[in-house]
Here is the input.
Amino acid sequence: MKLRKSILFFWLMSVFSFNRGFASGYPVFDAANWLAAIDRFYQGYDQVMNSIEMIEQNYQMIQQAYEQAKSWSFNSPDFNDGDLLHSIDIRDEIKDASSQINRQLNNIRKMRDAFLNENIIMNGHRYSFKDLAGLGDKDETFLDFAKDVAEANKNSFVSACEALCEDLSEEEEEAIWSKYGMAPQNVAMVNEINKKMMETALPMLAEASEKAQKIRQEAEEQQAKLENSIVKKVMNGNGQDITPAEAGQANVMLTQRLCVAIKDIGAQLRQVCTFAAWKYTTEQQTKKIEDSVKNKRLENDNQSSIPESFN
Here is the structure.
């Protein structure tokens, strides 16, 4: 029992020490930290969406060049290098490459949908990463998300937190109060809310990350085709500012950057969810104290209004 209590106390005292934004491992929650965390998430989201848009534009330019090339005559001397045309059907090669570009454009649109669609569902409400970044048409914020998580899991969270903290000594409770400025049960509640928020949102982000990895792999394969001497020769007369091969190379770098940006959003998501859970729990604790004080005052007022003859 003593070992269990020691492990529990250590866990409660260190539960937030991993979060950046906390000075020296201590949670320092204030408006500046809260707004800065949300702003970092917004910046990460904005970078992802801008990368998606640039990748899509490059592929649309490449696709346009392929569509133009489909109508060209490949019997001219420009393309007739000895017996090469007898062994390679350029039209089929361009058709296959065009189909791959169409798949990429479809994957990119699905990638965008992963951030725009309201796939995060909690307590009857739906959220998108766009909403959480503060860009949605309705008021669906991280704090709303934390509230929905807490309300949807209220009974199980309260039971779990009470069970965790029931064996703490008075000295241990005071140490936790001193460190976090809230009761041990509320510290445990912050962790439960944060954990559930992450369990709900991270799978959606993981799905987007898988799509980004697939787009990156296809971009590298497409780049190899664009560098093929026959295809490159066909495509260089497209009249654009950059050649399809250059656009393809740009997309390889952009898709690599996209994968990194989504990974960074995961870290930012963890931080903002922790702050949101902390803010919601703090507000609930404050409300509980205020309600208790209000009820006490009403009680005293009622007592003082009773005639002396009834005392």
Remarks:
- The mean pLDDT is 78.
- The longest helix spans residues 244-304.
- Strands lie at 120-122, 125-127.
